[in-house]
Structure formats: structure tokens, C-alpha cells
Specification:
Elements: H1 2-9, H2 29-52, E1 58-60, H3 61-69, E2 79-83, H4 86-98, H5 100-103, H6 105-108, E3 110-119, E4 122-131, E5 142-147, E6 149-151, E7 154-159, E8 162-167, E9 174-179, E10 182-187, H7 190-198
Parallel strand pairs: 2-5
Antiparallel strand pairs: 1-2, 3-4, 4-5, 6-7, 7-8, 9-10
Helix pairs in contact: 3-7
């Protein structure tokens, strides 16, 4: 779409347009290993908080895609996790402020930020946890936690000027998938969910669609 706009609308010569593939801009093996280790460290800290506070969560979107494809979570720009309870999100934030993930940021090398998204009269948390930037060229490990709001028979989360939705059935329980030395929760009927989210060919990586 961007190539078409450049050539047709802005009359940029085709010789000056380079549609870059995902495989051409992926981190090196060394960078991917470092990002993966950081992601694992973050996830283990979060899993302890989730477990000790009975917080229901689901690995979602690009993270779910990576897990179901059997690839490293570091293949994608961030690790998506969904909650369906604002109360659970508040507990999580409180815990982050008291655990090493929040209080000792200088020691752990991570930072936590939060903003709020609104659906109707409901204000939802959007929590981002990422490793600190050492150099501008450095890739970051990033955990993206969104709280979704129930609306009828779907859960909604704001996305730009629209909404993403998930049928309620997928969060009515969870399956467990093994990743490294962790057990991670994923939505039930995850194949159907991924088909709904990314299309029926979700198992096949796309070179020109950053979400898959």
C-alpha cells in the first residue's frame, strides 16, 4: 500500500522504492538471543505476580502467534498479554511498584509505564514493560499488557481509531503451552482465534505484514 502511494500519488520512481521484507530487518542471532533472555526474565517475574495474586491472563496476538508457530517470542516487536479485569490490572501495577521490577529499575534494567484507554465509561489500563535503551540502535524487550472490556458477547480493546474484538468464548478458559521452562496460558480454541485475528493462513509468516 505504501509503495503504491509513493509511486502513483507521489510519483516516486520505482527504482527508489525498496519494500523491505521482515526477514531483511530481523535482529541478528546474537541480538535475538539477548532479547529472548530479557523476555524470559520479564515473563518469569510477571508469572510469579500473576500466580501469587490469582490474576487471569492470556498470551495474545503476536505472542500467541509466535507460541503457536513454535518460534521465539523475540521474533516479534513485543510480547502481547491480555487481561479482562481492571481490578487485576490495578493489583498488577501495585505489585510492580513493590517488586524488583518496579522499585529497583536501575538494578534490573527495566522500566514500567502505564496509560489509560477508554471504552464508553470504562477506563482500561495499558501497561508497557520494557528493557532500558542502552544505544539508539538497540532492540528492546517489550511486554505489552492490555485490559479488554466486555461488551455483549465480545471483549473490546481500543486500537488506534477503532477496536479489536475477541469473542467471549476464547477467554472463558485457557489452554497451557510450554515455552522454554515456562507454562504460559493461551486462549482456548486458539486456532480459531488466530484465524479470526490474522486470517486462515496465520501459520504462514508474511514478509510484508508486520503483525504476522
Amino acid at each position: 500500500e505504501m509503495s503504491r502511494q509513493l509511486s502513483v500519488e507521489l510519483l516516486v520512481p520505482d527504482s527508489k522504492i525498496w519494500p523491505m521484507k521482515r526477514s531483511e530487518i530481523m535482529p541478528s542471532a546474537f541480538e535475538k538471543k539477548r532479547i529472548s533472555e530479557s523476555i524470559d526474565d520479564l515473563l518469569k517475574k510477571l508469572l510469579c505476580i500473576f500466580s501469587s495474586n490469582n490474576i487471569s491472563y492470556w498470551m495474545d496476538e503476536s505472542a500467541l502467534l509466535a507460541l503457536k508457530r513454535g518460534v521465539c517470542l523475540a521474533e516479534f516487536a513485543d510480547v502481547d498479554i491480555s487481561l479482562i479485569s481492571s481490578q487485576h490490572a490495578s493489583v498488577l501495577l501495585k505489585e510492580l511498584k513493590h517488586k524488583d521490577l518496579g522499585r529497583n529499575l536501575e538494578k534490573t534494567g527495566y522500566e514500567v509505564s502505564v496509560d489509560y484507554k477508554t471504552i464508553g465509561s470504562v477506563q482500561l489500563h495499558h501497561i508497557i514493560i520494557k528493557s532500558k535503551v542502552i544505544t539508539e540502535e538497540e532492540e528492546l524487550a517489550c511486554i505489552d499488557i492490555n485490559v479488554k472490556a466486555l461488551c455483549g458477547d465480545v471483549y473490546l480493546v481500543p486500537f488506534r481509531d477503532r477496536f479489536r474484538f475477541t469473542p467471549i468464548i476464547h477467554y472463558s478458559g485457557f489452554d497451557v503451552i510450554h515455552y522454554h521452562d515456562m507454562k504460559l496460558r493461551i486462549p482456548i480454541y486458539s486456532d480459531k482465534y488466530l484465524s479470526l485475528t490474522y486470517g486462515v493462513n496465520w501459520k504462514i509468516p508474511s514478509e510484508y505484514w508486520k503483525a504476522s
